[in-house]
Amino acid sequence: MDMSTETVERTDLRQPLVDPKNSEQKPQKEVRSLESVLSESSLPYRRRVYLGACIEMKLLFRLALPAILVYLVNSGMSISTRIFAGHIGGKEFAAVSIGTSYFNFVYGLMLGMGSAVETLCGQAYGAQRYEMLGIYLQRATIVLALVGLPMTVFYTFSYPILLLLGEPKTVSYMASLYIAGLIPQIFAYAVNFTSQKFLQAQSVVAPSAYISGAALLLQVLLTWTTVYVVGMGLMGIAYVLTISWWFIVLAQSLYITTSPTFRHTWTGLSWRSFQGLWSFFKFSAGSAVMICLEMWYSHILVLLAGLLKDHALSLDSLSICMSISGFSFMVSIGFNAAISVRTSNELGAENPKSAMFASWTATFVSFVISLAEALALMMSRDYVSYIFTSDADVAKAVSELCPFLAVTIILNGIQPVLSGVAVGCGWQTFVAYVNVGCYYIVGIPVGCILGFTFDFQAKGIWTGMIGGTLLQTLILLYVTYRTDWDKEVKKARKRLDIWEDKKEPVLT
């Protein structure tokens, strides 16, 4: 059979609503080619795998590389605040570390709720039901903004809460001031994560990368000015970070509302976005729990470090390790975003073989990259901490923790990609249960026992954390291996068909 002929025939069955010459539509043709290659029984198995890998790698990296850049830049914005604070003083560095970990609770909440947009928009776009995407975007933004209102109260009273958690008084006070300057970011997150997922579902990721890159440059320049020229200290760092996030939001929103690329997926504000808010909240809550439990897991490590004997040294060394881990994690999150788009698009387009093949390809590629990162870290373990601080004691502590960090980086090369598959399929609630069991019933209790009872300190806490992550990764590997992809296609189709009848999302 002529493969190119079959591709053309499949393409003709569903003409996209947008201009086929538009570069954003090129992946649609290649997706169908991938399914036809994987289904071609006349080709040897190894040949099908080779041809499929060539097609999928091109699609994967087209999505993953800009997404990685976006997340690296976003992570770089957070890391740069720690670098500036570290060069002001040790207490300032500890305050920013605790403040960032504390504030990242809402970051995880908003990012998690935004992943519901990724599932629904991705499957709708794969099925070429473009009119649904704009409604989902507006509905999600409304829900996230409403959730942000009580969060402002939570962060307003951060000082007594940090004291209640047992953090040092001086550091808690400084951290609470830093957090106060970040509160407007809550609503920037509400808009940013929904619009970001809206773009990713359509394989439009490069503009977000350019915008984020410009925001990072703006932040570094303004932070240097406020710290070294104006002398605003921690508050200057916080204000600039908030301004940078709102710059991203405004630029991204302007791009969506003015670009002709989205003339079929964004048709303007609609009252229909206020319908089905409760249904959307329930589904996004499952997504939020899944993502939050993952993100909070590592930040709890930093908060626990504040309760150890030598809390200043433990906080500084663990914060540096978490910054490095977070920076590496952004690479895996880029693949997470790419595979959730690939999986949801394929399921919406009724391509079960392509969905399965894309899932395992992304997992393998991310694992290889994380392995290389871990090896590079071990080679530079004695020097890497000097990026953040000039303290020799902290550098020694970081060097001792690097083997634990290397294992974490390798696991983080696999687990986020599998979570991306879960988002693409809509398994968020199931993964949330897995996260509760692995992280909070196994990982944290074991870490506390090793760290405090057996006095292994930071190494003991981290060992327990690694155990929880390993258990979760093994479970997700097994579930993905056992997935019936034809059944997942039927679930996606049913969800979209019922929405077409009732004009509201069916999220079961």
From TrEMBL:
<dbReference type="GO" id="GO:0042910">
    <property type="term" value="F:xenobiotic transmembrane transporter activity"/>
</dbReference>
<feature type="transmembrane region" description="Helical">
    <location>
        <begin position="236"/>
        <end position="256"/>
    </location>
</feature>
<keyword id="KW-0812">Transmembrane</keyword>
<feature type="transmembrane region" description="Helical">
    <location>
        <begin position="317"/>
        <end position="337"/>
    </location>
</feature>
<feature type="transmembrane region" description="Helical">
    <location>
        <begin position="430"/>
        <end position="454"/>
    </location>
</feature>
<feature type="compositionally biased region" description="Basic and acidic residues">
    <location>
        <begin position="21"/>
        <end position="31"/>
    </location>
</feature>
<feature type="transmembrane region" description="Helical">
    <location>
        <begin position="204"/>
        <end position="230"/>
    </location>
</feature>
<dbReference type="GO" id="GO:0016020">
    <property type="term" value="C:membrane"/>
</dbReference>
<feature type="transmembrane region" description="Helical">
    <location>
        <begin position="357"/>
        <end position="377"/>
    </location>
</feature>
<feature type="transmembrane region" description="Helical">
    <location>
        <begin position="93"/>
        <end position="121"/>
    </location>
</feature>
<feature type="transmembrane region" description="Helical">
    <location>
        <begin position="460"/>
        <end position="481"/>
    </location>
</feature>
<dbReference type="GO" id="GO:0015297">
    <property type="term" value="F:antiporter activity"/>
</dbReference>
<dbReference type="InterPro" id="IPR045069">
    <property type="entry name" value="MATE_euk"/>
</dbReference>
<feature type="transmembrane region" description="Helical">
    <location>
        <begin position="142"/>
        <end position="165"/>
    </location>
</feature>
<feature type="transmembrane region" description="Helical">
    <location>
        <begin position="171"/>
        <end position="192"/>
    </location>
</feature>
<protein>
    <recommendedName>
        <fullName>Protein DETOXIFICATION</fullName>
    </recommendedName>
</protein>
<feature type="transmembrane region" description="Helical">
    <location>
        <begin position="277"/>
        <end position="297"/>
    </location>
</feature>
<keyword id="KW-0813">Transport</keyword>
<comment type="similarity">
    <text>Belongs to the multi antimicrobial extrusion (MATE) (TC 2.A.66.1) family.</text>
</comment>
<feature type="region of interest" description="Disordered">
    <location>
        <begin position="1"/>
        <end position="31"/>
    </location>
</feature>
<dbReference type="GO" id="GO:1990961">
    <property type="term" value="P:xenobiotic detoxification by transmembrane export across the plasma membrane"/>
</dbReference>
<keyword id="KW-1133">Transmembrane helix</keyword>
<dbReference type="InterPro" id="IPR002528">
    <property type="entry name" value="MATE_fam"/>
</dbReference>
<dbReference type="Pfam" id="PF01554">
    <property type="entry name" value="MatE"/>
</dbReference>
<feature type="transmembrane region" description="Helical">
    <location>
        <begin position="397"/>
        <end position="418"/>
    </location>
</feature>
<keyword id="KW-0472">Membrane</keyword>
